[in-house]
Design a protein that fits this description.
192 residues, alpha/beta, seven-stranded mixed β-sheet, 5 helices, 30% helix
């Protein structure tokens, strides 16, 4: 059972995706991740994108902690339905419609989003079986939609190699938590 850890909706129990088709981020990893994000001062007023959202737990946690707008992107029917339930719960608790759900493939969503849309914080938590080539089809179009100072958090198996970062993105940190590795990336600095 997952819950919102902190913020306005802190302590609220989230709906879980039925079955075993998703791999929820553990509370331990989520607490460490959000502690780090708060130290980066990236949450307050942020526009957040949660790709491969599963239950939407990372996105709704962001909304609870002060993100201004959150887009949850999930293709699987059961997971998208769970995202909608969690978005409704958090939007009601916050008294505003900060969290939106998009049922789509991550790469399709990114290719169709208007050119001017920018995110400050992006979570990418694909199935561990997603290949590096498939991951690249998500990372490549993402780079042009990041605001200055944006943070991208990619969750992968500790057994996976470091992702190949496309032009426009560069890794600045990584953290390992048991079977999970969090890779942190930011927009690449332009040579000048």
């Amino acid at each position: 059972m997952s819950r919102i850890i902190a913020g306005t909706a802190g302590g609220s129990t989230l709906f879980s995706v039925p079955g075993d088709g998703t791999r929820p981020t553990t509370d331990r990893v989520k607490e460490a991740l959000f502690s780090r994000l708060e130290s980066y001062e990236v949450l307050q007023g942020a526009r957040v994108l949660d790709l491969f959202a599963g239950s939407g737990a990372l996105g709704v946690e962001s909304a609870s902690r002060g993100a201004e707008a959150v887009d949850l992107v999930e293709l699987a029917d059961k997971a998208a339905a769970t995202c909608r339930r969690n978005a409704e719960l958090v939007n009601k608790l916050l008294g505003s419609n900060r969290v939106s759900v998009h049922r789509a493939k991550a790469e399709t969503f990114l290719l169709r989003v208007p050119e001017e849309v920018r995110w400050d914080l992006v979570f990418i938590d694909p199935p561990y079986a997603l290949t590096e080539a498939e991951l690249e089809t998500v990372l490549a179009p993402l780079a042009k939609h990041l605001s200055e100072g944006a943070v991208v958090v990619l969750e992968r198996s500790t057994r996976s190699d470091e992702p190949v970062w496309p032009a426009g993105l560069e890794r600045f940190s990584e953290r390992k938590y048991g079977e999970t590795t969090l890779w942190f990336a930011e927009p690449a600095q332009q040579a000048g």
